[in-house]
């Protein structure tokens, strides 16, 4: 768990996901939207889509004064990288950038910025939505809401335990194999009659 206020992880991954540029930042510093948008900009792109998650001042009738984020950084970086790679396989992106703030995040400030660029808007809009949904469900970043008189760690409603994901995938694979087997049985039943 990261506890030092001086940790700043800034990784340009530059893996070749269809010649896509990717960038992941986990930082205790305020996030700079203009910087990330400039990194995603390219003359070949007709769209840059952005998601900014901010700290709101209320939850369930309580006044929120700030959020506090903690992360297991090495795993968070690997998970985010995997999500970006998956998005790049689904949509032709020029770049995908994820910046997540750690530590204290006062109200109205950004806790996460996701920027995707592509030739057309649909791809970048879909990729931004995919990345935030999967990030919230799979990445080990934890949030504590600090109220005027107390605080509470918040369970992420979208978070899925890795074994749940693995079991769901296994169940889908079994279902696909069963379906394929049934289809083969139908072909085998028809097969002999075709040879007559």
Automatic annotation (TrEMBL):
Name of the protein in its database record: Molybdopterin synthase catalytic subunit
GO CC field: molybdopterin synthase complex
Database matches in InterPro entries: MoaE_sf, MOCS2B_euk, Mopterin_biosynth_MoaE
EC annotation from Swiss-Prot or TrEMBL: 2.8.1.12
GO BP annotations, alphabetical order: Mo-molybdopterin cofactor biosynthetic process
Binding-site residues for substrate, renumbered to this chain: 120-121, 136, 143-145
Origin superkingdom: Eukaryota
Keywords: Cytoplasm, Molybdenum cofactor biosynthesis, Transferase
EC category: transferase
Complex and partners: Heterotetramer; composed of 2 small (MOCS2A) and 2 large (MOCS2B) subunits.
Gene3D superfamilies according to UniProt: Molybdopterin biosynthesis MoaE subunit (3.90.1170.40)
Family: Belongs to the MoaE family. MOCS2B subfamily.
Function per UniProt: Catalytic subunit of the molybdopterin synthase complex, a complex that catalyzes the conversion of precursor Z into molybdopterin. Acts by mediating the incorporation of 2 sulfur atoms from thiocarboxylated MOCS2A into precursor Z to generate a dithiolene group.
């Amino acid at each position: 768990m990261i506890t030092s206020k001086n940790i700043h992880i800034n990784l340009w991954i530059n893996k070749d996901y269809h010649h896509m540029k990717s960038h992941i930042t986990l930082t205790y510093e305020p996030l700079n939207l203009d910087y990330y948008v400039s990194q995603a900009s390219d003359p070949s792109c007709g769209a840059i889509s952005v998601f900014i998650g901010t700290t709101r001042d209320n939850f369930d009738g309580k006044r929120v004064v700030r959020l506090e984020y903690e992360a297991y950084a090495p795993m968070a970086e690997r998970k985010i990288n995997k999500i970006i790679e998956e998005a790049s396989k689904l949509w032709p992106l020029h770049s995908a950038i994820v910046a997540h703030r750690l530590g204290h995040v006062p109200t109205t400030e950004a806790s996460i910025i996701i920027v995707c660029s592509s030739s057309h808007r649909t791809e970048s809009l879909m990729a931004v939505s995919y990345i935030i949904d999967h990030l919230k469900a799979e990445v080990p970043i934890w949030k504590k809401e600090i109220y005027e008189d107390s605080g509470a760690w918040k369970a992420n409603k979208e978070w899925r335990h890795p074994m749940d994901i693995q079991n769901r995938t296994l169940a889908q694979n079994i279902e696909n194999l069963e379906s394929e087997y049934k289809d083969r049985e139908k072909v085998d039943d028809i097969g002999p009659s075709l040879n007559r």
